[in-house]
Amino acid sequence: MYLLDPFTVKNMTLRNRIVMPPMCMYSAGTDGMANEFHFTHYTSRAVGGAGLIIMEATGVLPWGRISDHCLGLWNDDQAKALKPIVTACQKQGAKVGIQLNHAGRKCEAQEDIIYAPSAISFSQDSPMPHEMSEEDICETVKSFRSAVARAAEIGFDAIEIHGAHGYLISEFLSPLSNHRKDGYGGSTENRCRILIEILKAVHEVWPDEKPVLLRVSAEDYEPDGMHMEEMARIVELVKPYIDVLHVSTGGVVPTPPKKIYPGYQVKIAEWLKKESGLPTIAVGLITDPHQVEEILGGERADLVALGRELLRDPYWVLHAARNLGSEYPWPEQYQRGFQARK
User: Fold this and answer.
1) Residue 339 pLDDT grade (very low, low, confident, very high; cuts 50, 70, 90)
2) Domains of the chain
């Protein structure tokens, strides 16, 4: 089974090709601290066999949270709360990453000011953001650097920079939300500038031997928005700073995809993999192990992320191996469940 094959990038070897992608739980306190729910939530997926667990979008600043109940990593107390979760998951055989994020104009936390590349609201019902000054941009870059330094101290195996779904970095990348006239707007290279500055800052504090992942939205579903051809150019610009590309679509404007079906984003992940030569993670309504086998066996992606399916079934990997008749090491405590198959 391809999905049970190990995968290595830099010094991180995953026990299989299944990724738990970041999914907001909106369960932290208003202080951004992880709690008992997060411990149970993540360790359950580690026991259940996930190869890589990427913890949910975690704010690098209070006004960079998606909600008042998102995790944060802008102070040391938040780091202390995350460390036992990471350690426990690693003891169960999973590798653990964290997705670092700034929500930009999609921040719904109770903050006086929200920030964006340009003073353009997400929708008619959304608040008007403040257009970021160069000083604001500099502070944001520094906040990513500080959060990454804390992630390194905690012992995460990987970090993922959130450049997708219409949050701040994605807003800079897309011409729909970035109308700036300075060095951070206009051309593809300028719109990519903040991302490159963040990635360079990441490498100042993140161990060279550990991988850096980038989540992108490669399609805006609007004629004047981001399309995969431009995203390929952006990936080429940031390629020296990243090791794995995690491919999504949409989110920068309320426009939905024209068609949604199981694996609807895989084609774009496959295309970007071939164009960039980078390992990719495919994601998007993937639920069936046979479909995962087709994606991996056809070399359409290197890893497959199961979001909602891992919410429904924390033990998806173990069940997939059992149902496909493959021997796979279940946790010792659960061996009777596997042996009772007949």
Assistant:
1) low
2) 2-339 (3.20.20.70)
